Amino acid sequence: MAGLSLGYELARDHAVVVLEAESAPAAHSTGRSAALFLSGYGPQEVRKLSRASRPLFAELQSALGTTPLLTPRGALLVATEAAAADALDDWMTGSDMRPVAASRCVELCPVLDGTQVEHAGYDETASDIDVDALLQGYLRGLRARGGALCVSALVVVAERCSAGWRVAAADGRHWECDVVVNAAGAWGDELWSLFGVAGHGLVPCRRTMALARTDRRLDPRWPVVGDAAEAWYFKPEGTGVLVSPSDETPSEPCDARPDPLDLALALDRVNAVTTLDVRSIVRAWSGLRTFAPDRLPVVGRHPADDTLFSFVGQGGYGIQAAPALASGAADMLRGHAGGEYDMDVFAPTRDALQGQDVAGTASAMKSRIAAVNASRLAFQE
User: Fold this and answer.
1) Residue 338: its pLDDT value, please?
2) 210 is in which domain, residue-wise?
3) Which of 273, 291, 309 is the last residue of a domain?
4) Hey, is 244 helix, strand or coil?
5) Which of 19, 209, 240, 249 has the maximum number of C-beta atoms within 10 A of its C-beta?
6) Residue 348 pLDDT exceeds 80
């Protein structure tokens, strides 16, 4: 989503080629998204971009000729313990979420155990995102503007040339350009190492989801229901229930796969607060959400070389904020300082990313992975 959204915006007045390492786009995080628009999700700076993106989805739907990109869903967040009330308050800051009583929670989602609800908030503007329609729309728009997508193009060589940069794929194809944009997600820091510049201390984290069976009769109009402290969420999905333990497990960049323990936790946590009695899983998947140390996206020219541009670290909000993020990044590349959006807070030169010991960050990530794996083994024993 990052590469195609920005590629589409830039192709209006630039020659653009998007290189995709896999045989088709959306093989990783984009294709494994929960596909939700929640204006209160992420840091405050990201929430501003998400709110700015909402009207842009309608504009893109018209411009790209897609099916409806946003469909009303509603989001109900509950605090089952008093200690989670602060987390709920944070969700309500700078968002469309408003407090609701426990009785209203049960009206909105009758399978929820209202006796466990200490506090709750409801966002009636939360929506489902048609991620594939948006992605394919961006791709059509990119091509209509003269841009191109090259698949199976894993970049393995980057070197200086008269045009600026020459990048080559593993199969020998190569391209020359004056500016390189890094939209490689979990592989963002690895890609910059090919160019001889430092990464941004990015940490990919696994998020697991599963489609589970239930004998309960489901209403497709129920909202997505989640824990304010982000320990679980669920929503109706066809004839089943989409469940997640809202895990955030540090990972190496990879083709993420679900951990059986995370799947068990998802079922247990959802069953503990509902009468769904979900027991079996139809299918399960995981994606990597990649964060910078301060959990803000990294958008802007690299401090070491202004012919290199970072568009990474979009965490779990890269799709819902894609329209404004891509528009703002394109304006930055044109020298317009982000246009109508305040993009300076996302710059690679921001204080939170300066002096980052990337090797140390990678070492710390591996230590966290080892600690998580050790705790999982202890839990299973």
Assistant:
1) 55
2) 75-124+206-291
3) 291
4) strand
5) 209
6) yes
Q: What is the pLDDT of residues 284-318, one digit of tens each?
A: 999 999 999 999 999 999 999 999 999 999 999 99
At residue 5, φ and ψ (nearest 5 deg) are: -65, -45
249 & 286 share domain: yes
Does residue 269 contact residue 231 with C-beta atoms inside 8 Å?
Answer: yes
Does 57 share its domain with 192?
yes
Distance CA 156, CA 142 (A): 24
Neighbouring-strand partners of residue 168:
157, 174
3-state secondary structure of 90: helix
Q: What is the pLDDT of residues 271-289, one digit of tens each?
A: 999 999 998 999 999 999 9
Q: DSSP letters along 318-339, please?
A: TTTTHHHHHHHHHHHHTTSTTT
Residue 267 tokens read as 């079922």
Among 312, 308, 6, 55, which residue's Cα sits nearest to residue 189? 312
Residue 274: helix, strand or coil by DSSP?
A: strand
User: What is the total count of domains within the chain?
Assistant: 2
Q: Are 212 and 257 in the same domain?
A: yes
Q: Are residues 324 and 361 in the same domain?
A: yes
* 109 in any annotated domain: yes
The domain that holds 273 is classified in CATH as 3.30.9.10
The percentage of residues in the chain with a pLDDT greater than 90, rounded to a whole number, is 86
pLDDT digits (tens, 9 = 90+) for 34-86: 999 999 999 999 999 999 999 999 999 999 999 999 999 999 999 988 778 88
**231, 298: one domain:** no
Same domain, 279 and 310: no
Residue 213 exposed, middle or buried by CB count within 10 Å (0-12, 13-18, 19+): middle
Task: Name residue 119's amino acid.
Answer: H
For 194-240, the pLDDT digits (tens) are 999 999 999 999 999 999 999 999 999 999 999 999 999 999 998 89
Same domain, 137 and 44: yes
- pTM for the predicted model, two decimal places: 0.92
Residue 8 β-bridge partners: none
**379 lies in a domain?**
no
